[in-house]
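Hey team,

Filing this mostly as a record. A colleague (T.K.) asked me to run one chain through the structure pipeline before their review meeting, and I want the input and output archived in the tracker in case anyone asks later how it was produced. No errors, nothing strange. Just documentation.

Input sequence:
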Amino acid sequence: MTLGLRAPSPLSLLGEARIVAEWISLRLCVGLLRRSAPRGDQGPILVAPGFGSDDSWTASLRRFLATLGHDVRGWGLGRNHGRISELVPALVEQTACFAEVTGRPVRLIGWSLGGYLVREVARDRPDLVKQVITLGAPVVGGPKYTASAAMYVSKGYDLDEIEARVAERESDPIRAPIDAIYSRSDGVVAWRACIDRRSPDVRHHEVRSSHLGLVASPAVFRLVAELLAAGRFSSADRGCGSLQ
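Output structure:
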């Protein structure tokens, strides 16, 4: 086990009920967000959903970004079933097609497991990727430090072996710039598992949100818009706290 890391307790999942308030807040202020958030440059953006979800879960974020002038689409691979060895090559293909059609490298946004997947696309095909933004992505340990850990164990997976394989992949660093958004009150992914201490070009941004709210929170929407508009050299460090 990585020092200081453990999966969220079952009680932590109760905090995910905040998603209701976060959705309501988004509905109330999305108009103001659209008017005040920085505009996009019509560059291509691909958004990957979390484990067990599909493009419908990221639709609000994509619609918001589209109104700002971004060329944004979902990943188009249906439900995220979690089989990494199948999903990474498929997502590489989707990214390559998008880059070819637009003639520009793609900015990748991934929520939860989707964040892990877009990182692996950037690792394998840095020529296709301009920027990576992750939302509550478990970059350490695979599912070991998530609320899904018990489910994986029940299905016969060796979580220590998966953690070792994830760590081994880090020997090939991700060269694309990464902005990692996380919440200490995340009830699904242990926040420390979202901290990337290996990639050479990564910044962390702390927000106050549930895990589900990372694709529904007005604060997250604004931060993502700022990071996209400013590129890697964004000054949007608000909310960044100690990573201890």
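Quick notes for T.K.: Residues 232-242 have pLDDT under 50 and may be disordered. The helical segments are 19-36, 59-67, 84-102, 113-124, 149-154, 159-169, 218-230.
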